[in-house]
Specification:
By secondary structure, this protein is α/β, with parallel strands linked by helices. The chain has one domain: Alpha-Beta Barrel (TIM Barrel). It is 38% helix and 15% strand. It has 14 helices and 13 strands. The strands form four sheets. Strands 1, 2, 5, 11, 12 and 13 form a six-stranded parallel sheet that branches. It has a three-stranded parallel sheet with strand order 6-7-10. Strands 3-4 form a two-stranded antiparallel ribbon. The chain is globular. The two termini are 30 Å apart. The mean pLDDT is 96.
């Protein structure tokens, strides 16, 4: 890359809290949430006219299986820092999913949710034991989930689409799948998976209750209260800061330049940096390194490793932690195993190269990193 590119990376890392320690933290979004149920659902929906190969989320994304998690943990354990710590993930997790049977039984008049552990039971033998692997990963400090929203759908808009008979939504629903590309000619949908998107400020009231329910479910299933939050699909209102704080959230993961929706078409835009506080004392986390082995258009990102390493180098030059951003869709293989296998190999190469270039690296989960640096 050019000197100009290096300067731009350095400038992005100028604001925010500093450290002389070479800390690497990997955030990975979407664990626990459904997208496409399985290969049969994928084929059925594709045959029905949904352009399933148009985005990586409809082509590759589904719940992580036992094999997915085992293979991921093996990659994480392929490297250690000088303190003997393996690389670890901070998954932003959705702890619940729609209960399709109950919603259908209500005639689509009411929304019902189920814990992701119940969802796993319907996915067959390939997912039997996934929940136990979550807990094993937590115990072995390979996998430390935080809160991404109770489910990864916008409940209000999900139900509105079903109630008005939206064709694509009903086809997806019948196959226990959500937030898929629209059949050509069908009514476009907006923000179906943007969990906290609002059009009116009053919509925040139901979202506050969703947060309370989700945080309780999280603690019941995983044994601790999450301290970190990032909104599903990256959008939420500052009106939620108070309830998030009450429920135990100390750190909020956001984009560097963040347009907060206030409702009724109003926004407030802010530039945010690592460790900056909001009005209730929560501190912001801003990711500064991207690692996406596949682009949203399903094509392989041949620069994923090299590009991420350049951003890690910039973070360390500017005495910032390297906060890597990625998504579950890269690392699940029930719909296409070769996609997962390639992404995991790229992740292994990235981690090995990090330990080679920076032998004094320290691998941490998100909350460890925040408590030390912020």
């Amino acid at each position: 890359m050019s000197l100009k590119d290096d300067i731009i990376r350095d400038i992005k890392n100028l604001p925010g809290k500093k450290t002389n320690r070479k800390i690497v933290c990997i955030y990975i979004d979407d664990y626990g949430s459904i997208r496409v149920k399985d290969k049969k659902a994928y084929e059925t929906l594709k045959a029905a006219g949904l352009p399933m190969d148009s985005t990586r989320y409809s082509k590759f994304d589904t719940l992580a299986s036992v094999e997915d998690l085992q293979m991921m943990f093996e990659v994480l354990q392929s490297v250690k820092d000088p303190q003997g710590h393996y690389a670890c993930l901070t998954p932003y997790a959705n702890i619940a999913n729609p209960d399709f049977d109950k919603i259908r039984e209500s005639g689509f008049t009411q929304y019902f949710r189920e814990p992701f552990t119940e969802t796993l039971k319907r996915y067959g033998s390939s997912h039997e034991g996934s929940y136990e692997l979550w807990k094993q990963g937590i115990a072995e400090h390979l996998f430390h989930p935080e809160y991404h929203g109770t489910e990864h759908i916008n409940v209000l808009r999900f139900m509105q689409a079903l109630q008005r008979g939206h064709k694509t939504s009903h086809l997806a629903f019948d196959n226990e799948s959500v937030a898929l590309p629209i059949i050509p000619g069908d009514e476009p949908l907006k923000h179906e998976s943007t969990v906290f998107y609002i059009e009116k400020a009053e919509e925040n009231e139901s979202l506050k209750e969703d947060i309370r329910v989700g945080m309780r479910m999280f603690e019941e299933l995983l044994g601790y209260r999450p301290k970190q939050f990032t909104p599903g699909a990256g959008n939420y209102s500052p009106a939620l800061h108070g309830v998030l704080k009450e429920e135990g959230i100390d750190y909020i993961n956001v984009q560097r330049y963040f347009p907060y929706p206030l409702g009724d078409g109003k926004y407030v835009k802010k530039f945010l940096s690592n460790g900056k506080k909001n009005e209730v004392g929560q501190k912001y986390v801003v990711r500064n390194c991207a690692f996406e082995p596949y682009w949203d258009n399903c094509k392989r990102n041949d620069n994923a490793v090299a590009g991420c390493l350049e951003n890690v180098a910039a973070a360390f030059r500017m005495h910032a932690p390297a906060i890597i951003s990625t998504h579950r869709v890269n690392f699940v293989g029930s719909l296409e195993a070769s996609h997962r296998d390639d992404s995991l190999q790229q992740l292994k190469t990235l981690l090995q190269e990090i330990t080679k270039r920076w032998p004094d690296v320290e691998f941490m989960d998100g909350t460890q990193m925040c408590e030390i640096v912020f």
